[in-house]
Amino acid sequence: MRSIKSRRLRKKLYLDEFAILGFEISCSIDVASSDEFDLFLNQLVSFVEDHELMIGGGGDTKEFSAFICSEHRYASATNEDKDKITAWLNNNKAANNIVVGELVDANYGV
Q: How far is the C-alpha of 83 from the C-alpha of 95, rounded, in Å?
């Protein structure tokens, strides 16, 4: 797909300068009930949305994983965004064994 030269097609297919970057997170969750998990999830989603990012994923009262990227159409998540999310997870007592992935192309995974 990288051989497409037209700027319009690169934009339409989110290639090259129009690629959108995001990152994966995963962690173990230490909560006693689904209500505590819902509270954790609501707080995480609020934090992510406050930083103009969006999150998609899921889990249960033991494990959680998600993908985070920018909420703007042609914007990407940054290393600073990764650092903020990592710090938030590290400061949250419910999250353990936190793994934050590298920035990857949200559409093509490279």
A: 15
Instruction: Look up residue 21 and give its two tokens.
Output: 């970057």
Instruction: Check if the beta carbon of residue 106 is closer than 8 Å to that of residue 22.
Output: yes
CB 99 within 8 A of CB 93: no
pLDDT tens string 5-38:
799 998 999 988 899 999 999 999 999 889 999 9
- pTM of the model as a whole: 0.88
Alpha-carbon gap, residue 45 to 66, rounded angstroms: 11
Q: How far apart are CA 76 and CA 104, in angstroms?
A: 10
Is 74 strand, coil or helix? coil
Domain segments of the chain as ranges: 20-105
| Close Cβ partners of 43 (under 8 Å, ≥ 6 residues apart) | 92
20-105 domain in CATH 3.40.980.10? no
Closest CA to 41 of 20, 25, 58: 58
